[in-house]
Amino acid sequence: MLDHLISPPPGAVLPENARVITVMTADGLALRAAFWPAPETIAPRGTVLIAQGRSEFIEKYGEVIGEALARGFAVAAFDWRGQGGSERQLANPMKGHVEDFSDYLLDLDAMIEALKARDVPQPWQLLAHSMGGAISLMALARGPSPFMRALLLSPMVDIAPMRFESVIKPLIRLLAGIGLSGFFVPGGGAAPTARKPFAQNPLTGDAGRYGMLQGWLKVAPGLAIGDPTIGWVAAALAAIEAFDDPDFGMENRTPLLMLLAGQDKVVDSRAAESLAQRLRAASAITIPQAQHELLIERDAIRAQVWAAFDAFMTPVGDA
Fold first, then answer.
1. What single-letter DSSP state applies at residue 37?
2. Residue pair 212/12 in contact by the 8 Å Cβ criterion
3. Regarding beta strands 147-153 and 256-261, do their DSSP bridges make them parallel or antiparallel, or are they unpaired?
4. What confidence score (pLDDT) does residue 32 get?
5. Three-class SS of residue 59?
6. The pLDDT of residue 191 is above 50
7. Are the C-beta atoms of residues 6 and 59 closer than 8 Å to each other?
8. Closest CA to 257 of 281, 229, 234
9. CATH number of 19-313
10. Phi, then psi, of 316 in degrees rounded to 5
């Protein structure tokens, strides 16, 4: 694992003054985490914890971290087990892998304890993307949480509809059940999604920011992972099934807002919207022309994301 942040490639940004630490989970895995203090020149507004998506890494959020700091927030970020600069669970480092999504809750809980130990500014806000949104939903469903609000971007409530879905899902479960969970999904491999040409990418309509993402992987290929393992997909399907339970989320007490991408080809925005309608203290807004990666999208789309952030995350009465 890494014990530092990577210097940005040309065109990319990453705020300085970060403190990078190793956070240990209850089951003994080492996670890379980073903390940025709020600017002293701005009235403090608390702390934003970034819960990234599958295959992501702290450095990718450099622009976002800077924008949150400019709003007066301290920022904390970390890499989930099996990706970025955190410890891998399989010998092949390109295989981001878990056997159960509850393993990710151990990561989030370890990060919460790290926030408490460092007495980072209150209130705490959760900013989660895609897989991080799914894990955040699982965490909030347990009941009272330390987060005042949670903003979920393109949360993975379900995977986007695919051809032969009725065959693929049972096949994945079968392969996982016969001991093949550590293999890449059929047809998958070690090449990261972001290595695809811009015209073929399912993540963003912004060529410049997509190029910056590719730039990070060029200067630090060790941050990347490839396609999911069979075990990861089986675990994701089990987590998604839990969201269909009519009683899911009834214990949630944290107000949450889902921002959904109208052109998402990675996750199912309609499933997320349906869940938001059922959950306590939840709502959803769809940005029609957006693709999956709302925070590396075009400026006009990102402006809508930050307008929602400002309206939702800032406590009533805060200047």
1. P
2. yes
3. parallel
4. 98
5. helix
6. yes
7. yes
8. 281
9. 3.40.50.1820
10. -55, 130
Which residues does 102 contact at the CB level (< 8 Å), separation at least 6?
A: 138
Asked if omega into 39 is within 30° of 0 (cis), the reply is no
- Long-range contact pairs involving 272-277 (C-beta distance under 8 Å, separation at least 24): 272/152, 272/154, 272/155, 272/157, 272/158, 274/157, 275/137, 275/157, 275/243, 275/248, 275/249
Q: What is the CA radius of gyration of the chain?
A: 18
Model's pTM, two decimal places? 0.96
Compute the CA torsion angle 271, 250, 98, 218 (nearest 10 deg). Answer: 60
Distance CA 117, CA 99 (A): 29
Give bridge partners of residue 151 from the DSSP assignment.
Answer: 127, 257
Tens digit of pLDDT for each residue in 100-123?
999 999 999 999 999 999 999 999
- Residue 82: exposure state from Cβ atoms within 10 A (0-12, 13-18, ≥19): buried
Judged on CB neighbours under 10 Å (0-12, 13-18, 19+), 305 is: buried
Output the average pLDDT for the chain: 95
The ranges assigned to domains in the chain are 19-313
Residue 164 reports pLDDT greater than 80:
no
**Distance between CA 273 and CA 257 in Å, rounded?**
10
* Residue 317, pLDDT above cutoff 60: no
Question: What was the pLDDT predicted at 103?
Answer: 97
